[in-house]
Design brief:
This protein is an alpha/beta fold. It is built from 19 helices and 26 strands.
Length: about 550
């Protein structure tokens, strides 16, 4: 940590906006239909101060952990502010986790209080809340018997003064999404998250004039950084999404100037466009002068992205062709790279310097090198304090000179741009003794219009294979006459395309079509929509011998 000026820490910045733009709208919360609730900076800080006063009255041990279990909403951010003002540490929990994992996090983090907010599966999750743990309910939470936020702030005096927290004090614990094993609690202090927030704001010229829509889980470090933390240091307006069904309307209400998403959603947006206009026809029309500009503007307008200055993709690899497709539409889609362990503050593509397939250059203050084994090593001013109650795992995660071992493999080009080539632990060896990295092959598969997600595997077999999940629109048409044959022919062509694009030892023997829905709820995806590779391999592993013996190029799972 180079040492950030105390005036630039998150709480201090929030206090400044409370004074400088008290009546400006900070957060817009949808309430259903066309109804919204607007939170000015003055109201936001007033309610946070009152909740902080209530927390102080509970007389919890200093620097206690306080948990938040909620989908994104204005009260989530106000809870963070209240927790910090009261001298405690915030622990956010993904709103899609099962009761067992919720209980594990609450008990492992030693949380002394739980905010229960906007949730879809409360009836299934509430069994994971330890008996006797005090809880507070948000206005948008499901029915419960807990004390409510509104009643508490109505009767509680605001905390006195403007309490501040030091740069080295712990601000939050982020539990990893758990693609393998139990989630680990990543500890971050105020200095780290503040430096990361000012770093990207300065790099991209973010200001209070910008707007963002918050819909990726705030429990994940990426959204906690890019939306909550950056808004607190720049003062821009935050809009929230009400639900998946209202997403397009929420996006059009916000008309964001900054927009971030994950590869799966960028692919869904593209598929939505292709559903209205086939790719070949669109490609042809985009080559016609004048008409091209009109079509691009209409597509981005229909998506609610026509005001976007910068769009970002993170959390997982995105096909280079998909980035290029959006850039051809006039959307400045930039890929970034980071981890929970460095508050996502690692690499970003920049306008004029971006190259599809690369995640860009380092942020200010970040160092990167590639180990002899090909692993990406990063030293960031936003590096974690460590894993909560896991000193051995913390020590194993860093080199002796303080570089984080990312677990990712990569290369750096002459311009300093980083390319991710896969996960160190995802490498598998075929029975021919060759190591295969699945991520680059999956990127080729995922760029196909019929495929939504894929998992390449094949440890111990002569050749690799892929299991794919088809897009929702394709699945909905499979029962129609001739559609299955059409899809199979397309997958045979895709298999040929993949095998021509990769080395001989990386070629696929077959593509299997999964019948299961790969969702967060089914356990196949993490809360940030990354595939849980071990779950997929355990699910389809018993069928592999039969699939390989069939000698078919496309296998429809029975």
């Amino acid at each position: 940590m180079a040492g950030i000026d105390d005036s630039k820490l998150l709480l201090q910045c929030a206090y400044r906006f409370e004074k400088e733009q008290a009546d400006a709208i900070y957060m817009t919360q949808p309430l259903g239909g066309d109804k919204v609730d607007q939170f000015s900076w003055a109201r936001t800080l007033d309610e946070a101060r009152r909740m902080a006063g209530h927390i102080k009255s509970m007389d919890l041990p200093p620097a206690s952990q306080i948990a938040i279990l909620s989908k994104n909403c204005a009260h989530f951010i106000m809870s963070d502010l209240a927790i910090w003002m009261a001298g405690h540490v915030s622990v956010a929990i993904y709103p899609t986790l099962n009761a067992e994992t919720v209980r594990y996090i609450l008990e492992h983090s030693e949380s002394k209080l739980l905010f229960v907010g906007k949730l879809d599966i409360w009836d299934e999750v509430k069994a994971g809340v330890p008996e006797g743990l005090p809880c507070i309910s948000y206005p948008l939470s499901p029915p419960n018997d807990f004390p409510t936020w509104d009643k508490i702030v109505a009767k509680t005096a605001p905390i006195e003064g403007s309490p501040v927290r030091g740069a080295k004090e712990m601000a939050l614990i982020v539990y990893t999404s758990g693609s393998t094993g139990k989630p680990k609690g990543v500890m971050h202090n105020f200095g780290a998250i503040s430096e990361a927030s000012h770093g990207i704001a300065n790099k991209l010229g973010v200001s209070k004039e910008d707007r963002m829509l918050s819909y990726l889980p705030l429990a994940h470090v990426f959204e906690r950084w890019i939306v909550e933390s950056v808004s607190l240091v720049t003062g821009f307006q935050v809009f929230f999404a009400e639900s998946l069904d209202t997403f397009v309307g929420d996006l059009k209400r916000a008309r964001p100037t900054l927009f971030v998403s994950v590869p799966r959603l960028w692919l869904k947006f593209q598929m939505g466009v292709f559903k209205k206009m086939p790719p070949k026809k669109l490609s042809l029309l985009l080559k016609i002068p004048i008409l091209s500009g009109i079509i691009k503007k209409k597509i981005l307008g229909n998506l609610g992205l026509d005001q976007v200055r910068f769009a970002g993709s993170g959390s997982a690899p995105i096909p280079a062709e998909l980035i290029q497709w959006y850039q051809d539409l006039g959307l400045e889609l930039l890929e970034g790279y980071g981890m929970s362990e460095n508050f996502s503050y690692s690499h970003v593509s920049l306008p004029g310097k971006s190259l599809p397939g690369y995640v860009g250059n380092t942020y200010p203050g970040v160092e990167c090198r590639i180990s002899e084994a090909g692993e990406i090593l990063v030293k960031s001013p936003a590096s974690m304090m460590g894993y909560f109650k896991m000193p051995e795992a913390t020590a194993e995660s860093f080199t002796e000179d303080g570089f984080l071992k990312t677990g990712d493999r990569g290369t750096v080009d002459a311009q300093g741009r980083l390319k991710i080539t896969g996960r160190v632990k995802e490498l598998f060896k075929t029975s021919k003794g060759k190591y295969v990295a699945p991520a680059p092959i999956e990127n080729i598969l995922n760029n196909d219009s019929y495929v939504e997600q894929s998992c390449v595997s094949g440890s111990g077999h002569p050749m690799a294979h892929a299991v794919v999940q088809l897009g929702e629109d394709v699945v909905s048409r499979l029962s129609e006459a001739g559609v299955k044959e059409e899809v199979e022919a397309a997958l045979v062509a895709l298999l040929k395309h993949v095998n021509e694009a990769v080395e001989e030892y990386e070629q696929l023997q077959f593509i299997a079509v999964a019948k299961d829905a790969w969702t967060i709820e089914s356990g196949f995806l993490t809360p940030t929509m990354k595939i849980r590779r071990p779950v997929l391999e355990d699910t389809y592993g018993p069928k592999m011998d039969g699939w390989y013996a069939s000698n078919k190029k496309v296998i429809w799972e029975a």
